[in-house]
Amino acid sequence: MWFKILRLMTTASVASATMAQAGISALFENPTMDSGYTGVSYADMAPPMVVSGGPSGNYYQLQPNGVAGLSNTIAFVPSGANTSSIHAEFDFRMTPDANGQSTEGFGFAIYDYVNYGGYIPEDFTQLDVNEEAVTWEQPRWNLAFSVGFDLFDGAFETQKNMITLNADGRRVAANVLGFNINDGLFNRIVLDLENTGDDAVASLSLIRDVYGAAENISVFEKEAVLGFNIPGSGLAPTDPTGWAVAFGGRSGGASTAVGIDLDNIRVNADAVPEPSAAMLLILTGGASMVIRRRRTQPV
After folding, report:
1. Top-tier CATH class for 22-273
2. Which of 56, 68, 204, 215 lies in disulfide reach of 220, CB 3.0 to 4.6 Å?
3. pTM of whole model > 0.90?
4. How is the chain classified by DSSP, letter by letter?
């Protein structure tokens, strides 16, 4: 009988854990297998598109090389709520002009889907906590956690080849890399974001030239994100409108407009366990202990 009860409880626990996971995936090989997304060109030229011929097959051209004045985005369907942690991976490639110059950069955001009305706005339509304009390479979006990849030393940027962590309208941390990230190679980003009470912690690594030398570089390690939780943390686990994911890029002048490509996007989340699921796990553990104890008793 104990075996039957244990099997039923284990099955229920596995089912509950499966339901607690949410996320997106876009490999751009088969549209029916990718999570739903929308690509937009706010400048109404050179829209983002799926392109063939990448090192792992198709990839997503967020913006082509050499086209000035672009502000392009790709936004995915909302991915879940009541999330305790998020693990994200994606490949990116930034291609400079013939002289090796590039502006401006791109960003990745995990944002509050409901409060943004389903999308993150175009550049310069929002101000951060210091009343400065927000751009995709410096994505200090309110009600969002974001990563910026900045190539240009300008009014709001202090260094080239800078990666930043941002949350709720402010910069959390910045790291200036000792090499060009607009090297025309695919690099992979690995991000872990986890709620810790009323705050969060973030770690980010970069695998440089992921299809070649594959050098693993730690950029941020357990960086404290004070006063921030993953959007939608207070919603019901079944509510699909808590948080969503978007990428956006910008190009500068005609002679320095950067090309930006994305691929192998995977964002997975774990939800806060429901009380019933937690109780099932406790009962499962207790039942298994009883069975082990009975087996070890002498006959």
Report:
1. mainly beta
2. 204
3. no
4. -HHHHHHHHHHHHHHHHHHHEEEEEE-SS-TTTSPPEEEEETTSSS--EEEEEETTEEEEEEE-TT-TT-EEEEEEPP-BSSEEEEEEEEEEEEE--TTS--BEEEEEEEEETTTTTTSPPPTTS-B-TTS-B-BTTB---TTEEEEEEE----SS---SSEEEEEETTEEEEEEE-SS-S-SSS-EEEEEEEEEETTEEEEEEEEEETTTTT-EEEEEEEEEEETT---TTTTS-TT-TTSEEEEEEEEE-STTTBPEEEEEEEEEEEEEPPPHHHHHHHHHHHHHHHHHHHHHHS--
